[in-house]
Design goal:
There is one protein chain. The chain is mostly helical. The protein has four helices and no strands. It is elongated, with a radius of gyration of 16 Å. About 20% of the residues are buried.
Length: about 90
Amino acid sequence: MPPAFPSADLLGSIAGFLTTAAFVPQVVKTLRSRSTRDISLTMFLSFTVGVALWLIYGAMIDSLPVIAANAATLVMAGTILAVKLANFRRE
């Protein structure tokens, strides 16, 4: 009997793609406007650290979907965080 759901890696890959792709519009908007006034520094700092930890966890368990999704998310979240930190004194 075939499984009711796709394989765990396929499911993880789809979930990782969707949650990572959700960041693209925010990164584009942040880079275009250079505005981060409405982004919480505390939230984004803790989110970025959390994503880095998920990336390390993915490497520890050798899970390509976890590694790929979190590596891409870390780059995007890190980009937004860098702009936020650059704007911190100004905002």
